[in-house]
Amino acid sequence: MLVGLFVALLLLIFIGAPILCAIGIVALLGIVLIPEIGPAIFPQKTFAMVDSFSLLALPYFILAGELMAAGGMSRKLVSFAETVVGHLRGGLGHASVVACMIFANVSGSAVASTSAIGSILAPSMRERGYKPGFSASLLATSGIIGSIIPPSMVMIVYGALTGASIGGLFLAGIIPGLLISGALMGTIYAHSFRAGFPELRETSGSFRLRAVLREIPRVWVALLAPVVILGGILGGVFTATEAGVIACFYAFCVTFFIYRSRRLRELPGMLVNAAVTTTTVVGIIAMAGAFGWLMTFLDFNEMVMSLLLSVSQNGLVVLLILVAVMLFLTMFVESLAILVIMAPVIVFVGNQFNFDPMHLGMVMVVATQIGSTTPPVAVGLFVATSVVKTTYDETLRYCLPFIVALMLVLLLVILIPVLSTWIPNHFLRP
Q1: What does the pLDDT read at residue 204?
Q2: Could you tell me which residue, 319 or 53, shows the higher pLDDT?
Q3: Structural domains counted in the chain
Q4: Would you give the distance in Å from CA 158 to the centre of its chain?
Q5: Does the residue 33 lie in any domain?
Q6: Segments forming the whole domain that contains residue 162
Q7: Is residue 357 part of a domain?
Q8: Peptide bond connecting 226 to the previous residue in cis, omega within 30 degrees of 0
Q9: Which of 39, 256, 340, 386 could form a disulfide with 288 if both were Cys (CB 3.0 to 4.6 A apart)?
Q10: pTM for the full model?
Q11: Could you tell me if 154 and 369 are in contact, meaning their C-beta atoms sit under 8 angstroms apart?
Q12: Is the separation of the CB atoms in 192 and 90 below 8 Å?
């Protein structure tokens, strides 16, 4: 039964069925084929999965990202980032990383960050002689910062699937997000010394504090966003769910009344876009409730645990194996689907070995996001390739060094739990 269900699930995903439909069909099929369960359990488990206060944050953060992207924040962030780091070797590449870091505080999505920042930077990179494949690889890997630095749609989904504190996950992502940013900037800088990258040795001159100060009045609203959102959570002023409402209201005011880059008559279209995205994500979570319950009923978690223990009884080794499996699967299947499928196993393994929920959650989030840039099925690379207007094969030529840098950060997050746990434990402890 289990083998047949997983084969059906993977087949549906590979033929292009939406994740929502694939998981829902397989879950319903499994429940119907087991006489002692009864089909009534399907709506019960799907509804129970989304009957969560913490999930209220999801539509608000999605709408906040939609409003900020439409409001022209990305263009101002790119200009500011280039002023700050343009004097370094590979300055335009560094600017993409810095801009993604700041934009991550409102977008919460890797794809949104890649699209928004990439659409601004790609023409400038081409003008300055950056190789299109290099630009696409950099933008794709920089984009995943949007899913690591809070707020993060992936963390909200993971928290809903596993019961982990979403506010805690947000805080746990700060240090890993900064490490990823540093690793990518280090990779760019290292490339500037290679013979084949003369364009990376060009700079915009020396660092000028006066130029940075001139940019701040134009971009202060964007820079204030992370202070408001993260500061409120760190200070205990509001929860992660309430932060979503604050972010949405903030983005609304910025777009329509401060930047005035959009008219109010355009708001319904933005609401529709946010509603469509929210419906898709919440639908996937709902179907995951039925699917996860079915896997538990069929003792899938115990089977995986027994298999892992037959290899090693060391918690670190088991965690490394689990991460390796996640990375391998995300090479072929969309990362969100893998997170949904593996969530029950992750929770079960975490409980058996007493892993810290924040540490385990951050390891899994980082691993799945790296998978989104790992060929052959790499959504991030496809998006960046489209934005830069190059070929997928050209992008693949340059992605390996960036993926290696991301893998090194993942290894650090696995081996040093305090990188993920220190901030949540310090600010959220009773």
Answers
A1: 67
A2: 319
A3: 1
A4: 11
A5: no
A6: 40-428
A7: yes
A8: no
A9: 340
A10: 0.87
A11: yes
A12: yes
